[in-house]
UniProtKB/TrEMBL annotation:
Pfam families in the record: ANTAR (PF03861), GAF_2 (PF13185)
Single GO molecular function: kinase activity
ANTAR domain: residues covered: 168-229
Record's protein name: GAF domain-containing protein
UniProt keyword terms in alphabetical order: Kinase, Transcription, Transcription regulation, Transferase
SUPFAM superfamilies for the chain: CheY-like, GAF domain-like
The organism's place on the tree of life at top rank: Bacteria
Amino acid sequence: MTEIDPMAPAAAFAELGRIKFSETDFSGVLTRVAGLATRAVPGADQVSVTLVGAGGAHTAAFTGGLALALDEAQYEQGDGPCLTAAAANSTVHVADMAAESRWPNWAGIAVTAGAHSSLSIGLPMHEFVTGALNIYATRPGAFSDEAVSLAESFADYAAVAMANAHLYDTQATLAQHMQAAMQSRAVIEQAKGIIMGERRCTADEAFAMLAKISQDSNRRLRDVAAALVARVEANPKR
């Protein structure tokens, strides 16, 4: 398996925010999301992005054949962690494939293929398309609580980048269909502005501070940002 070059989470988040949609199409954005997740989430070996629409589910981006094969096995069976995560916009963690009881047939396929744990996180995009970020590992117990929290924060930001890329590609107004993702981005930007004002720092430095708090407190990035905004609104400077 190809050796992974680790990337600091804050750097990966910032990279997502710097994607230029005029230079990268929707498929390219998905490929960037998968690649950055592989480098930023501790324990990750391969990553894929599942999209689910009216025509069913398909893997829109992947970093290796193992991830693609395990996604497609779920589509074939009509069930599995990535489909569940996409449908419920939730996080599904399979800590040990050998002990997995929810999807025993699929887990058996995964073990045979060489995957022993996985993490799937829902990606809200808009009303007609949902998705999931799927992270696979070749050892059991690969994802700590901190890694799960980090992956959820990454997925929050990735969902915004994906939604914006889709909007740019189709030149359609999807704002009303991406309410959850856009609200997350708005509160994150507001929190960044607060930190920049208080600390006299750059936007990237402010985002890095939010990301660090998210990792240390095991909370989603958007929840950390919302708490900061609420605190400032409750105690405005006179």
